[in-house]
Amino acid sequence: MVSDLLFGMTRLRLGVAALTASAMLGGIAYVTGAGADERSISGVVVRTGSGVPADAGLNRTLQELEKSYDGRIGAMGIDLGTGRKVGYRAGERFPFNSMFKVFACAAVLGKARTHEPGLMDKVLRWKPADMAGLTENSPETTEYTDTGMTPAQLCRAGITKSDGFAGNTLLKQIGGPRGLTEFFRATGDRTSRLDRPEPWLTEWEPGEVRDTTTPAAAARTFTELTTGETLHHRDRTRLVGWLKASLTGATRIRAGLPKDWTVGDKTGTGGAGNHGTANDVAIVWVPGSKAPMILSVFTNRNADDTAHDDKVIASTATALAKALGRW
Question: Is 310 strand, coil or helix?
Fold first, then answer.
């Protein structure tokens, strides 16, 4: 097993961290499926599908947004200061798209810390032919074909610029998509999975299970990696630093929150040919608050060959923050 090789020495610590996160989040049950946790509030049918108590105001807001958007929205919000959590379609599956790169970076950081000291500064090289089909969405790695890059540089490129070849190269350090899936399992995430590298992982149709997660699972695992004990505190700080420096999410979660809030995020975009899928996951600090929020938002259009809409993600972030009582 790939995880036995990469993460065997940290298995006990990961198990404790997963239990800690579960207790912290109130024992969220990550139930998949559209019909899970369905009930009526004031005549409005709500579906959270994650064991998260439904918030009537949030559900009304996002149901109306879905109608105007002609698509589906999945969202999860966690206030780590109060323990409050809200969700909408939080147990339904959506494609990772490029969001997987933040989790791949976390896995590589974990491997470097426990199994391969010096890995983050080791120069990795490739040939131009290795980048076939990925040059258009690999803005930084195309500039370093002659010199190569270290995993630390690849993490920065993958998170801040969503560089596709950087993501694939990082996956190779942990055993490919299967290795990342096993990393999810080691952290206690039994929902998220990666099956294919770029660009194939963005090939998605409604009902597809490959290369998917749920808003609840993504938020829980992201919480553990950015605030929990799965990563060494120095690696956790490094990961959060890359998230804060992200250049791809300016019109998504960040755009739906006040300018003086600090946000670190990772986006994912499938494109019009994949039902306009687009998502974002973020850690958010509100001035004066003792603990951050975690927000995850996933979207897709009902019709294929339709562009995604960043404004929907921004509006959903606003609704989550208000539902959590932060606005």
Answer: helix
Pairing outcome for strands 71-79 and 85-88: antiparallel
Selected catalytic residue, list 3, 50, 92, 98: 98
Least Cα distance to 266 among 142, 178, 194, 158 occurs for: 158
Distance CA 5, CA 54 (A): 41
Q: What pLDDT, in 10s, does the model give residues 146-163?
A: 999 999 999 999 999 999
pTM over 0.90: no
Contact call for residues 222 and 264 (beta carbons, < 8 A): no
pLDDT tens by residue, 42-93:
333 334 556 676 789 999 999 999 999 999 999 999 999 999 999 999 999 9
- In sequence order, the β-bridge partners of residue 40 are 45
Catalytic option among 66, 92, 198, 224 = 198
Distance CA 259, CA 104 (A): 29
Query: How many CB atoms are closer than 10 A to CB 108?
Result: 29
Residues 6 or more apart in contact with residue 290 via CB below 8 angstroms: 81
Q: What is the mean pLDDT of residues 289-299?
A: 97
Is 98 part of the annotated catalytic residue set? yes
d(CA 170, CA 107): 9
With bands split at pLDDT 50, 70 and 90, how would you rate the model's confidence at 288?
very high
For residues 236 and 244, the answer to whether their CB atoms sit within 8 Å is no
Determine whether 38 is an active site residue: no
By the 10 Å C-beta count (0-12 exposed, 13-18 middle, 19+ buried), 131 is classed as: middle
3 state DSSP class of 5: helix
Query: Per residue in 110-169, pLDDT tens?
Result: 999 999 999 999 999 999 999 999 999 999 999 999 999 999 999 999 999 999 999 999
Mean pLDDT, the chain, as a whole number? 88
> Interhelix angle for 11-24 vs 215-227, to 10°?
120
